[in-house]
Amino acid sequence: xxxxxxxxxxxxxxxxxxSSHPGFHWPIYVLFLLRNGLTFTAIGAIASIQSVVVIAGExxxxxxxxRIGRRNxxxxxxxxxxxxxxxxxxxxxxxxxTFVFVALSFGGTFVSGSASAWLYDxxxxxxxxxxxxxxxxxxxxxxxxAQTVAMLxxxxxxxxxxxxxxxxxxxxxxxxxxxxxxxxxNAQYAGRDPKGAAGTSTDExxxxxxxxxxxxxxxxxxxVREQVSKPAMRSFVVYMALFGGALVTADIYIQPIAREALxxxxxxTLAAWNVPEAAMLxxxxxxxxxxxxxxxxxxxDVEDRVGTRNTLxxxxxxxxTLYLLPPLLPLLAFPMFFVMxxxxxxxxxxxxxxxxxxxxxxxxxxxxxVVAMLRAVAGVPFRVGSGVLADYATPLVAVAALGALFxxxxxxxxxxAPPMRAATGTGTPAD
Length: 431
Description:
Layout lengths: L7 H12 L9 H7 L4 H29 L1 H19 L5 H19 L1 H12 L6 H29 L3 H18 L5 H4 L11 H8 L7 H12 L2 H17 L6 H19 L4 H21 L1 H8 L1 H16 L9 H24 L7 H29 L2 H22 L15
C-alpha cells in the first residue's frame, strides 16, 4: 500500500499526511465548544471569521510558499497547527476559541497551494509526474485511515475526559512537525538542477544570467493572471469555486443532521445500552473517513478508467442530486454523507492533477492558493445563506438547496463555458 518502490520523499510524504490532520477532536469539537458556554450563533461567527482569514491569507501565503520554498511553507503550517491544538487546552471563551480557529485556518492557507505544488515538483524531479493522482490519492487514503483511528479514539477519550482528545492532538502535532522537517526541499530551493542532471544549480544559474526562477512580489500578479486566464483554467476555477461553495459547505451540517437522525432512529436503543452520544459520533465520523480512505486509494484508477473530465463532472452531480433526497426521507442523510465524503476524496486529488498539469512550476503554489481563495470567497454567501435557511426551516432543507444550486450552476456553466478542457503543450489530456 505504501509504494515501497517510490522515492523516499514520497514515503515521507505519506507519514506527513498521516499526521497532518489530528482527528481526535473532530467528532466532538462542537460539543466541546457548547460545553464551554459558546452558542451556535457564536460558533457561526467563528466560522465566518475563519472564511475571512482564508480569503485574506491564501494568496500571500501561496506567494510565501513560492518564495521561501514549499517545504518551508509546510513547516510554518505545522507550527500553526500545533499552536491551534495547544490553544484548545486553555481557551474558555469566544475570544480564545476564535484564536484557536484563526490559527487553524491561517495554517491551512500555508498548505493549500504549497503541499500540492511540493508533491508535483518532487514527482517531476523523478520523472514520474504522471503518477500525481495515484500518489496524491494514496496519501489521502493514508491520511483518512489515520483519522479513522483517531476519531474512534477521540470519541472514547472525550467520554473519559473532555480534554483528552486535545492532548492526543497535541502529541500528534509534534509528530507532524518532525515529519515535515524530514521532507526534502524542491530542487529549485535546494540549489539542485530540477531534473537532477549535472550542471549549474538554480542559484548559480540565477547569478549567471541575472534571473531567478523563484517568484518575486512584482511578478506574482501578472503570473497569476496569466495562469488563471488560460482557456483550460478560467472556467474550471469558476467550477471549483461553485463546487467548494455549494457542495463542501454541506459538511458543516453533518453533526446536527446526524445527531437528530440518530436520536429519532436508534436513540432509545443507545440510551438503553448506555452508549454516549460522543462515542457514536466518533464511530460515525470514523465510518465516513473509512469510505474516504478507500475511495482516495483508488482515485488514480478511477481517473485512468473513467477519465478526468467525466469524473470531475459526474461525481459532483451525483453528490448534488443526493442532497435533494433527505428532506423526503431523513434516514437518507446517512448514505448522502457517505457519498459526499467519498466523492470529495475522489474529486480533490483529480482536480489538483488537472490544475497542476496546466500551470507552470514558477508561481504554482500562488496560483493554487488563488483557486483555494476563490473557493473560500464562494463559500461565504453559501454558508450565510444556507445558515439562514437552516434556522428558518431545517439543516436538511439547507443542504437540499445547496445541491439544487450546484446543479443549476453547473448546467449554466457548461452552456456558457465548459470547465474541463484538454491541456496544451506539456500537460496531459483531460480524459
